[in-house]
Design goal:
Structural class: alpha+beta
Low-confidence stretches: 5-23, 269-293
Strand content: 25-35%
Order of helices and strands: HHEHEEHEHEEHEEEHHE
Radius of gyration: 20 Å
Distance between the termini: 23 Å
Number of strands: 10
CATH superfamily of the largest domain: Pseudouridine synthase I, catalytic domain, C-terminal subdomain
Number of helices: 8
Shape: globular
CATH class of the largest domain: Alpha Beta
Largest sheet: 10 strands, mixed
Length: 293
């Protein structure tokens, strides 16, 4: 991926002093958007191109080559996108939040962008601060469309979205979601606040809002709902699979390309200094620990 042209050398020269003058540095958080098509996921992996990797590469250029860890609200897997990922990092330089945001964004490749950089409390971590996460799965239920199907799953057979919505409601509530995801060293119990299925023309969207997700959870839920939409199973079968706790429908999962982390709502308040800001307060909308793959 070719990087955008930028005045990165100027940003680096003006980044200011490092640890010596500012101690451990200031904590910042930001919103990140990315097209996950060409990434091996969010989390840094040796020998693979990842979102965390390119973010840390950009910050290293502003920090004299020294890498700074970038934490995220969710670790999306290979091919999964994000419209509103939340990250946080500790930066020892002198750039203001606004200038830091512009500098990072100028150093990022075309398939990642950063916005809304702001100062937060030293102990802020986006995973712990997240109240809710919302994922959207997009299906193109029409004639083959190369452009639309880059970020959506193409399904040619008609889908009964009413039946899908009824089946989705079975998955709402607090449940053991072992049948629909992998819990890595943690409890498989999650609270799904909403599963919403909507159609607009040939586009079908499935929005899932939860406190947190197991690995693969949304894509496995979507695979089941698509089978309902095709008329192969019904809502009762989805409910039976949920309580059965074995891999639902042989572990079938929808392709990653249709999935996007749509929102992360921050709202767990932490003690901060007088010149720092609180995480976003959530109003009436439910927005988006382990994260969906």
């Amino acid at each position: 991926m070719t990087r955008r042209k930028s005045s990165s050398s100027n940003w680096s020269e003006n980044a200011g002093t490092r640890e010596g003058a500012l101690g451990r540095g200031r904590r910042f958080r930001a919103r990140v958007e990315y097209d996950g098509t060409d990434f091996a996921g969010y989390q840094a992996q040796r020998g693979a191109r990842t979102v965390q990797g390119v973010l840390e590469d950009a910050l290293a250029q502003l920090n004299g080559g020294a890498r700074l860890r970038v934490d995220a609200a969710g670790r999306t897997d290979a091919g999964v996108h994000a419209a509103d990922q939340v990250i946080a990092f500790t930066y020892p330089g002198r750039l203001s939040a606004q200038d830091l945001g512009r500098a990072i964004d100028a150093l990022l490749p075309a398939d990642v962008s950063v916005r809304d950089v702001r100062r937060v409390a030293q102990g802020f971590h986006p995973r712990r601060a997240a109240r809710f996460r919302e994922y959207r799965y997009t299906v193109w239920n029409g004639p083959r469309s190369p452009l639309r199907e880059r970020l959506a799953l193409g399904v040619r057979s008609p889908l009964n979205t009413g039946a899908m919505a009824r089946a989705g409601s079975v998955l709402e509530g607090r449940h053991d979601f072992s049948a629909f995801g992998a819990a890595i060293g943690a409890s498989p119990i999650r609270t799904v606040h909403r599963v919403r299925v909507r159609r607009k023309g040939s586009e079908v969207t499935i929005d899932v809002v939860a406190d947190a997700f197991l690995r693969g959870m949304v894509r496995r839920m979507v695979a089941a709902l698509l089978e309902v939409g095709r008329g192969n199973i019904d809502a009762d079968a989805v409910g039976q699979a949920l309580v059965g706790r074995k891999a639902a429908f042989d572990g079938a999962a929808a392709p990653a390309k249709g999935l996007s982390l749509r929102r992360v709502a921050l709202g767990r308040r932490e003690k901060i200094g007088p010149d720092e800001v609180q995480p976003d307060e959530v109003q009436e909308e439910l927005d988006g620990e382990h994260e969906e793959r």
